[in-house]
Amino acid sequence: MTYPTAPWKLEGYAIQTLHLVDIKQAVPFVPSELEIVSFLPGKTLAGTYISSYEAGSLLEYNELIVVPAFVRYQGYIGAWISHIYVDNEDSVAGGREIWGLPKELAEFSGDNHGKVSVKQNQRELYQLSYKKDFLSLSTWWQQEFKGNAFGGLGSELLYFQNNFKSQISLLKANLEIPQHSPFASLSLGQPWLTLNLQKLELVAGVPKLLGNEVINLSYS
């Protein structure tokens, strides 16, 4: 299995959903060594990120990321990624070995009517329906922003920065997570904000080793 070294430069489009979830629902998805950050009393920020990286990318593939919480470790704050699915074997290998991300293979499908779904072994994990928000105005320029995240498989806790550049607009979205999905018990509910990221340019940075912790979770 061959994969590019970090950083990875990716181009395409994505949809980001943001949710406020009960911290008690997020706890089973987060290693005990990490402190869950509270955004409101008893609530943390969670989300999903579904993307398609196309021609011009270091690798071409589709991706679903599930973030159960924002966390803190020794002064570092970022998203903890509990589940991540792609449809490219090189992306699986690179994600696991470079960033310590629990990437798995899955099947992605979508239509021209604003619906995308992710399945694994014919079992549906995730379905998102979306349409333009009536009040949505897209930025005609590409806005720049950053997103920090943690990864950890085995005994290494890693931290890395993602640099984004994208046109941004709002969407109305309906998220369906079947009860048998591995992250159903997170109880994401409906997003309070859904962002449409077009003309996306992403650089997934080189990870930094923060420590040797036992990161060994089994999600139901």
Automatic annotation (TrEMBL):
<dbReference type="InterPro" id="IPR023375">
    <property type="entry name" value="ADC_dom_sf"/>
</dbReference>
<dbReference type="Pfam" id="PF06314">
    <property type="entry name" value="ADC"/>
</dbReference>
<dbReference type="InterPro" id="IPR039343">
    <property type="entry name" value="NDX1-like"/>
</dbReference>
<dbReference type="InterPro" id="IPR010451">
    <property type="entry name" value="Acetoacetate_decarboxylase"/>
</dbReference>
<keyword id="KW-0614">Plasmid</keyword>
<protein>
    <submittedName>
        <fullName>Acetoacetate decarboxylase</fullName>
    </submittedName>
</protein>
<dbReference type="GO" id="GO:0016829">
    <property type="term" value="F:lyase activity"/>
</dbReference>
